[in-house]
Amino acid sequence: MSGTIEVVQSSELVQKARQAKAAASALGKMTTEQKNKALELISTQLLEEQKFILAENSKDLIIGKDNGMNDSLLDRLKLDEKRLKEMADALILLTELIDPVGEVLEQWERPNGLDISTVRVPLGVVGMIYEARPNVTVDATSLCLKTGNAVLLRGSSTAIHSNKALVQVIHHALEKSDLPIEAVQLLEDTSRETASEMFKLNDYLDVLIPRGGAKLIQTVVKNATVPVLETGAGNCHIFIDETADPGMAINIAINAKTQRPSVCNACESIIVQKNWADDHLQELVKALQEKGVQIHGDAFVQQGGNQIIPAGEEDWGTEYLDLEVAIKVVETVDEAITHINQYGTKHSEAIISASNENVEKFFMEVDAAAVYHNASTRFTDGFEFGFGAEIGISTQKLHARGPMGLPALTSTKYVVRGTGQIK
Amino acid sequence: MSGTIEVVQSSELVQKARQAKAAASALGKMTTEQKNKALELISTQLLEEQKFILAENSKDLIIGKDNGMNDSLLDRLKLDEKRLKEMADALILLTELIDPVGEVLEQWERPNGLDISTVRVPLGVVGMIYEARPNVTVDATSLCLKTGNAVLLRGSSTAIHSNKALVQVIHHALEKSDLPIEAVQLLEDTSRETASEMFKLNDYLDVLIPRGGAKLIQTVVKNATVPVLETGAGNCHIFIDETADPGMAINIAINAKTQRPSVCNACESIIVQKNWADDHLQELVKALQEKGVQIHGDAFVQQGGNQIIPAGEEDWGTEYLDLEVAIKVVETVDEAITHINQYGTKHSEAIISASNENVEKFFMEVDAAAVYHNASTRFTDGFEFGFGAEIGISTQKLHARGPMGLPALTSTKYVVRGTGQIK
């Protein structure tokens, strides 16, 4: 019996992946106008069918409450008129962005007369794996369609009613468009076994993008043979060197820690050079505490402040994602860089300094997707960088690193024009 | 006991990977001059110690012969003075290429005054997995060092004496350079178990590059959780449409098939549109047969020629890598494109045509790393494209696609300069 069930599971996955792949081929030929028209139609359809969507969403919310889902998760799961309106508006904004597909990145001629150019093309089929946030269903789908990619969505079982409703509505919109409706596929089977199968579906999927917490992402990275776009955790540091302007340093540290503590580009550790700490650490600690931040500090920090929790080894590697921060005092810039490279997650790292030498050293030696001088790590974001959209923030080094805009969902193709050349 | 052995195996791998990672950090800071000097020193050292290298290589050759290794594999394994000279010369040529590390790819300013730039940086640690070709040891090492990457080499057990000798010589050269000798690591344990462990060593390796046959590559792709740069098989097609110039079409088909049949960019199937076939197929078949090419043909081809082997389903998907070709006759351009997308390996595909419409359609719809008009597929090559070096030819869509030059061994970093900006 269990064998039969497995075959059934597998066949939904493979069948939908195959349909997505076939649709990807047709999608790749769509013009920017055809793709934008489809996005507009989805935007309209979401609002037209909002009652249906909210009714289905409330089923998930009821089941979630019954199963003891906490308030923060329920809030992420919840859709309402305002959130649907935001989704619909985001789709319209997306139509205004430049379509990267077809862009000629380089063109050159070889001595033998061959004319070679590099042209952006869609990736093909994108596998999205995400948690109980139905907005990702619409967000991921729209980014994929804009870039000519088909998408196979695998959301959480706890959002299945919402996701099915949203994909049904998207299909209703696509029926009125030139795009194939098979370009958007939702896996209704949300079992772990099928997810594991999806991780290894190299024949049909060109890339997997996990969106969610560190655990989900690591599960995908550690098990997938399909190439993964790793959007990762952020254990981000602010390093205040001895030349830093005290007002600016404290201002940036407060912002990076407290403006939105739950996000990956928030600061989790502050590293302070001793000469600066001697004069300004108490002021920094006080300012953070006034904002309600709980401080874990090393021996030096404990000496100079009240209510400091002793920081242990585990604090340096912790993403608190809350109003908590670890503070460490170092003698040298080298010591700070070594610490950051040891405990950081290669996301966003900042130095506050008035020394060009220290800044250039930090930029060169700190291994991270984004390195900052005299600015908050909170700017690591596709919108803040001016990309107009964001797939996620890559913490891996292949393909795309840092905030990923639409071009991260494309590949390239060499187009070679000859006049009969042979080798 | 087997547990103990496993620990020992694992510890060589992890220890060397850890050393490579530590060295990568130092390597990333080296100037172009320091890296080029090291390449020159390796070039000199290879020639100075050639007697030692050739003596060690002959041990592998003797063992290979004793174990019944075939002549073609023995030839790939063999080093001699001429081949060492070629390696030494290639190192000097590499010093003349532009160092991609440090290149500023883009720079822009945001309305809030943040100055953002994208800078090329090394990947970190590259894991190379390859077969019994000792030249890859030197080739891979030199490309990695030029781009500031450390390398963990895992060659074949049948080339272990050669590889150990070459790495020892490379270390002798690095001792005289500013580069850390730990940047080049050779795994002496060539067991499958350790290779499998290496496939999943995400904590230390930034990328795996398999170099060798289709089987090796697929083993790595299907088992690795470390990101892979897939350099793949080539089932390349020449499509001759009804408007093609007969002389040019035959010339290109002959070149793509026969100039070097054993390589991945050689042609394996020729697709001919019926109207052209009616007038010129016999001439094409005859020209191929005169070059010693064995022809597998569909029913139409069989009718018009002698000594045609009936082509079956399996022929369309076969990389002969020899003087054999499959020929299929189609009615339409669409039929040709569908066939190519079904059986091709997304490597290199050519159309021979005088119709702009057909060419643009082919360029748009054929899914391959390189698409050609009126030229031989044999040009898909880093040197032919003018890159001056080649890591391999990527058939995947993430990171790099097609011939990969030095930039394929780099990542990027966002460098953000502020004046106190907070969010």
From TrEMBL, chains A, B:
It comes from the Bacteria. Its main location: cytoplasm. Its EC number is 1.2.1.41. The keyword NADP applies. Pathway: Amino-acid biosynthesis; L-proline biosynthesis; L-glutamate 5-semialdehyde from L-glutamate: step 2/2. It is an enzyme of class 1 (oxidoreductase). One of its GO terms (biological process) is L-proline biosynthetic process. InterPro entries: Ald_DH/histidinol_DH, Ald_DH_C, Ald_DH_N, Aldehyde_DH_dom, G-glutamylP_reductase_CS, Glu-5-SA_DH, GPR_dom. Residues 6-291 form the Aldehyde dehydrogenase domain. Keywords: Amino-acid biosynthesis, Cytoplasm, NADP, Oxidoreductase, Proline biosynthesis. It is found in: Cytoplasm. The keyword Amino-acid biosynthesis applies. CDD domains: ALDH_F18-19_ProA-GPR. GO terms for cellular component: cytoplasm. One of its GO terms (molecular function) is NADP binding. Pfam families: Aldedh. It catalyses: L-glutamate 5-semialdehyde + phosphate + NADP(+) = L-glutamyl 5-phosphate + NADPH + H(+). Belongs to the gamma-glutamyl phosphate reductase family. Catalyzes the NADPH-dependent reduction of L-glutamate 5-phosphate into L-glutamate 5-semialdehyde and phosphate. The product spontaneously undergoes cyclization to form 1-pyrroline-5-carboxylate. HAMAP family: ProA. This is Gamma-glutamyl phosphate reductase. It comes from Planomicrobium soli.
